[in-house]
Every structure is written in structure tokens, then in C-alpha cells.
Specification:
Elements (H helix, E strand, L loop, with lengths): L1 H4 L4 H12 L8 E9 L13 E9 L9 E6 L7 H10 L3 H10 L11 E6 L6 E6 L9 E2 L2 E2 L25 H20 L4 H4 L7 H10 L6 H24 L2
Antiparallel strand pairs: 1-2, 2-3, 3-5, 4-5, 6-7
Length: 251
């Protein structure tokens, strides 16, 4: 946050970045960074766990209703402070690259609203990255006292709901309702893929006949022991039982 507000970066760097991304008209500019406030990474109010995050407020040379002044920024953990998290997220798993690519090239095709993309970049040599988008105006959640939500605040229809902290779904008034909403959105996302809505990026999806599947299965099949087969059956059965129990007794 301090680096972003410094003379070496600041409003001029944001202007060049947004121009490069094509998200800010060439005749406009960021003239001032009003604030750059980092979000907590530890404690009860920690903002996720995959990266550092901050909220940015900017002013433009030419105010425009299409340009957000409240921005959200993700950037990597400092290796000197969080070496394990930095290696796991930015090196071993490459979580950062696909997220930036998705924001740049795919999010506008999704069947639901997503935060507007402003800039993203990743350096493969250093694993440094940055992703800037609009800030989602999450309202305040109900007060939490002694680890539990103290009452529920009234919400209007279609209002954005408060953010839920990581591993804190037990604070939601009806967790199953929230998860089912997420599952329905995931279903639409997958269905649109089958309909070819993302073909302009991925290209047409390959099609396979039953004979093709059978040929691939036979050519790559390796013999396994009866003990392994039974072990796999028990593992799959356990997963299915848990899912069926959720559908029958929770939803």
C-alpha cells in the first residue's frame, strides 16, 4: 500500500496500467490516490488467505459513471514475512496466473455479474502479480460477539449481502441456502460452457462418441488389484453418502 502511494508509482502508474489494459480512455487519467488501505491477513476479520489485499480510492481527470473510484487490489504476500504461503500460492500451484487470465478474458462471458476488471499482470520470473478490479460494496454484517452473530440486520431484496469470513459459514443464518445459491450459479457456469458460450476463448469443445471413450479407456487401462478396487469403491461410496445426506437432511 505504501509503495502504491509513493512517487515511484502513485496515480501516474495507475494511469499507465489502466491505459495498457484498455480500461481507461487515453484522454483520461488517474489524478489522485485518495487512499490505499491494506486489509487484515490474520485474525477473525482476515480477508481471505490466498494473497494480500487492499482497498483503493482514486480520482479521475474526467469523472465518468463507467469508471469506478472504489477499487480492490490483490497482490502477493511478502516472501520475507509469509514464505510458506507465498510458495504454495504463487509457485507450486500458480493460483495467480489463471485468476488474472480469467478476469481479463472470460469473466465478461459469465452468466452472472462479476467485478469489473481494471488491470492485471504476473511476472513468471519473480511470481509477483497484481490484480485490480472494482470494489464490491459489501454491507456490514451483523455484530459478532463471543464468536457468534448477535442478531440479523434487515436486508432489502436484491441487496448485496455481507461478506462471510473464511471458515465462518456457521455465522450465516441458513448456510444451506447460501451454498445452494452458489451451486446453482456453478451449474449455470458449467451449462454455458456446454452451450459453447466460452468457445471464443477456449475454442470449440471436443466431442467424443461412446466408441472413442471405450477406446481411450481400454488403451490406458492398467490392471489393479481387487483390494484397490474395493478401497476405491468405499472411498467413492463415502463421498456419495455424504452428498446424499446433505441433500436429504440439510437442503
Amino acid at each position: 500500500a505504501e509503495e502504491l502511494k509513493s512517487d515511484a508509482f502513485g496515480a501516474g502508474w495507475l494511469t499507465r496500467a489502466f491505459h495498457a489494459a484498455g480500461t481507461l480512455p487515453q484522454d483520461n487519467a488517474v489524478t489522485r490516490i485518495v487512499r490505499a488501505d491494506p486489509l487484515p491477513v490474520v485474525g477473525f476479520d482476515a480477508a481471505g488467505g490466498a494473497a494480500m489485499k487492499m482497498l483503493i480510492t482514486v480520482e479521475y481527470l474526467k469523472p465518468d459513471d463507467e469508471l469506478h473510484t472504489e477499487l480492490f487490489c490483490k497482490y502477493p504476500y511478502l516472501y520475507s514475512e509469509y514464505p510458506t504461503a507465498r510458495k504454495e500460492v504463487s509457485s507450486y500451484g500458480d493460483v495467480d496466473g489463471p485468476e488474472i487470465t480469467c478476469q481479463m478474458s472470460l469473466a465478461h462471458l459469465f452468466p452472472f455479474r462479476t467485478a469489473k476488471f481494471y488491470f492485471g499482470e504476473v511476472c513468471r520470473e519473480t511470481t509477483n502479480f497484481i490484480l485490480i478490479s472494482e470494489t464490491i460494496p459489501f454491507p456490514k454484517r451483523a455484530p459478532v460477539q463471543d464468536g457468534y452473530t448477535n442478531g440479523e440486520m434487515a436486508r432489502d431484496p436484491y441487496q448485496i449481502l455481507p461478506v462471510c469470513g473464511k471458515y465462518q459459514d456457521w455465522l450465516l443464518p441458513n448456510p444451506a441456502e447460501f451454498y445452494c445459491c452458489l451451486f446453482r450459479a456453478m451449474g449455470r457456469l458449467a451449462a454455458w460452457d456446454k452451450l459453447g458460450r466460452y468457445d471464443e476463448y477456449f475454442g470449440p469443445a471436443p466431442t467424443w462418441s461412446e466408441e472413442d471413450y471405450a477406446h481411450m479407456a481400454e488403451s490406458g487401462k492398467k490392471s489393479i488389484s481387487a483390494k484397490t478396487v474395493e478401497s476405491q469403491k468405499r472411498a467413492v461410496a463415502g463421498v456419495l453418502d455424504a452428498g446424499l445426506d446433505y441433500l436429504r437432511n440439510v437442503v
